[in-house]
């Protein structure tokens, strides 16, 4: 049986010099250079290996401004079949709940999806919330922190979850939502041919009019999370102590000072 897989990916900023919208207190993503979230590459690789074993098709799904297309092209160059970008000003400022709602509605619109894959988390927000939220909106099983995906028979798969102090093996029915760890695989590099082919593939652009979404549940209006303020931590000016004397005297003095500050 072939699989219809959706891999949800995110573009994350490259620079540390990020701008915050003074009104919404959200990160300004438009116009900022970005790359694919590293964990999402593991999700794509997992999808590609399942496709190689069982057949099927892989659709990439992302939400963001138009320049996110470049990140989707990277996924297409790895070997995915097509892509959908959810892009609209109405989606802007979404927290994890509003983001998960829109992604879930898009997955329903795609139809007949067997498996949705996410990276374990994004490196810019580190919440690990969107995958589980999508599973709740879809009312599908969720399996998080997966390091292995096993056999697919009679719409059943098994997974190994790598947790802090243990491993857990789970058998689950499809359709399902799975978030994967970086330990699962080593993402492949796009071949020159696949890079060339990726620019021949169409990326569909969907907005709020393309999906059956409730206007009160998207973007800022649909986001119960409120950022009250954003600030940079103050840096303390620390004095530098120079050690004098011979090398042996300097080492003895260093050890004394380290013991005095409980560093030894």
UniProtKB/TrEMBL annotation:
Domain Electron transfer flavoprotein alpha/beta-subunit N-terminal: 24-215
InterPro entries xrefs: ETF_a/b_N (IPR014730), ETF_b (IPR012255), ETF_beta_N (IPR033948), Rossmann-like_a/b/a_fold (IPR014729)
Designated name of the protein: Electron transfer flavoprotein small subunit
CDD domains according to UniProt: ETF_beta
Domain of life of the native organism: Bacteria
